[in-house]
Structure prediction request, 652 residues.
Amino acid sequence: MIDYQYARYKMVERQLASRGISDPRVLSAMQAVPREVFVEEGFQEFAYEDSPLPIAEGQTISQPYIVACMAEAAQIEPDDNVLEVGAGSGYAAAVLSYLARYVFAIERHETLATNAAARLAKLERHNVEVQSGDGTKGFANKAPFDAIVVSAGGPTVPVALKEQLEIGGRLIIPIGPQDRSQRLIRITRRAAGHYDEEDLGGVSFVPLVVAHGWKDDTRHADLERHLPDLIRQAAESLPAPEDPRFADPFARFANRRVVLLGEASHGTSEFHQARAVITRRLVERHGFSIVAVEADWPDAAAMNRFVRVDERKTENPPFQRFPSWMWRNTDVFAFLAWLREHNATASANEQAGFYGLDIYNMRGSIAAVLDYLDKADPKAAAVARERYGCLTPWQNAPHTYGRATLTDAYRSCEDAVTRQCGELLRHALKESRDDTLFDAAQNARLVTAAEKYYRIMYYGGAEAWNLRDRHMFETLEHLLDRAGPNSKAVVWAHNSHIGDARHTEMGKVRGELSLGQLCREKFADEVALIGFGTHVGTVAAATDWDGEMEVKRVRPSLEESVERCCHLSRSTRFLLDFARHAELANLLAHERLERFIGVIYRPGTERLSHYANVELSKQFDAYVWFDETHAITPISPQATSGPVPDTFPSGL
Ligand code: SAH
Prediction:
């Protein structure tokens, strides 16, 4: 059962107050209205996400933040007479009803208007009236209005609305071409024929997602124009990653206990190559003995046997399941071949191992869930694919929520699939029992927690994300403990895991934590979080979970993104060390968009599915830039020759 009251409280705190909504009356109105009543059947689970959601007639219920922004901008007093144009679900009208004396709301679609009126009546909001009709003409009978709030974007301001304003009245309206970014405008009627107009900032209706808050800080804006110059000055240029000198500037991080190396996608060759050359250096010269990656434990354990020159056979060849290219590619295999060679000649305390941090056989379990659902209920399988497909659990694209809405069949399969996952786990544990590095205590911990893991993973969402990152952190701690007080680890995982989630939308808005954050909390300045980024190129990714790998073009980064600033610095490859460049770090501590491509890339909905706001210089300690990047070269699951080093055991 979802605790809506708590979810609403969190929404007000994270999505509104922390983003600059400060009017206490607006915040308490947002706290008062149960948004779950206004969403469609099946969507209640998502009612307090930071996103618009689909409603009937192809329309959307507004993002909570945008409703609060508009309500605040309208400066509504308790005695005000208010008009809303575009009532939709009735949600914004309900919020306005807590602020004003009376609210008239107009909605073009009759069925939406009827449903909105019914919801408001059920909630006993007696000071709201919803009518169907064309709101661009206003509502002459009820005019004049102290405030008019228009919930749909248009190219111009309808004259009727201006004329229905009381003297001193405010009209809040998004203006701009459809499907593009609009400006939120406030028009104040000063006298009969005299209106003032203010631009409150950029918004994107519909869906109503706000890129930035609308603080007007001109000094900051001025400085931002110089951001590419500052980046160019701070950038420590890097050679191609094939050149071992690429690793030189990273020696400064060698005294840390844990060095976390990110990636901006799971299918980019340059990121893997860079991580490999840096890791080689840390292993060869600086005593790092643990390479821990965002992979399932059993698959990585097979690779660990290979790099440890342990010729025991592996029953199931590793990294066979979706997304196999993530680790089964020429860059990773070249690194593993090097590590094996290194270990073959190194003394025992100079050797390094290769470990998987992810929830034990997570991908195997997901495959089993999909297998089961494909047979039992293909519709539920489609829901599962959507849920697993999100990099960070739910994204801002309203249609994503639509496809991921739970059916009764999905719920009824829960017991069967968790049981199957449990069996899979027991089998995998039996197979890797000889892996002495993974001791009985850790196994026992896994088995106890397994059912909880599988139940939560089955439903996805923030809770599943947090469980997974906590598990990754505990596994890393466990590996470090086993290797002794002087042990050091390199971690390879996506930027979304290795970055500090407290300084991104993930933590600030969605309540998600990250491996990088947990490492900072425990090891403080003994960790280095190093992010990676790119402007353009190609990437290996699928369109849906379980889909074929495709080589896709990465679109040029968006104007408001950190990537675009790096691109405009006109430097092809570099390291930014924020600790050494305070002014740059200060500027990059302001929110900008960052692109996240996982195993799924959907260029068509890129802004909504792949960008999130971050404070780059707080998210990471350092940032590695490749202006142009290329897709990895996969190694097919059957391959035993070609790019597969001939020392690999045949099972690989
Ligand atoms: N405030 C609503 C958001 C609805 S989206 C909520 O909180 O749920 C915008 C709505 O405006 C849609 O329902 C759309 O049908 C309606 N709309 C668009 N043009 C309109 C017009 N000219 N008159 C009345 N409603 C309009």
Notes: The pocket of S-adenosyl-L-homocysteine is lined by residues 59-62, 85-89, 91-92, 106-109, 112, 134-136, 151-152, 206 (CB under 6 Å).
